[in-house]
Amino acid sequence: MSNLNIIFISVGFLILVVTIFFCTKYILMKFVDKRIENYQNNLMTKHYSEVENMYKKIRGWKHDYHNHIQTMKAYLELEKYEDMKNYFNDLDRDLESIDKVLKTGNLMVDAILNSKLSLALSENIKINAKATVPKNLLVSDIDLCVIIGNLMDNAMEAATKIENKEERFIRVYIREMKKQLYISVTNSNGGKVKKNAFGYVTTKLQKNHGFGLKRVDSIVEKYQGFVNRQSEEGVFATEIILPL
Fold it and tell me: 136 by DSSP, 3-state: which?
């Protein structure tokens, strides 16, 4: 075989390898894009459900407000002032129980956190939440909301699997600590959390399971932060530290 033929064969083989490489890369990118699209669609569906739940609560408050007005008007017309006073006291206590909206100091965090907490309450999950977000953050609002949203989703998923509703709980704690942003989400957990060499594994059954945990880890790594997950009997906790 002449040197020229060898060169032609080598060039042809190289072109074939390059073509296969780029075709494979294109197919993989399409596959990844499709999975991301499905994941985002699932998020949109979930967020729609959360917003719809909040709207239902608002409509319920509006309906209750109308009934309160009608009741008080009836007491006034019947001159039942003592009953009116007692009703006012009961209403005041009821309003105190309703006013549980968290105000963190960050509007986007307020929106995502209150949406998740509202949904958790609708699932009979006890909530203990304290959150304060400093104004000057190195992490973007979007990245912060992705972290909080995914942590809350995982916590709610675990808590709702507990059959005894009295044992369901989620604790959220967010604050500035030693010039760093500290985020802690702890939840009740009914089963054993799976773990492999790379860390804890989600138990979600959706096609796009695992994206939430990966997104959180990638964002924490992006800002050179720290994430710690701990699992004990009946409890799972995630701690995240991000630089300010």
Answer: coil
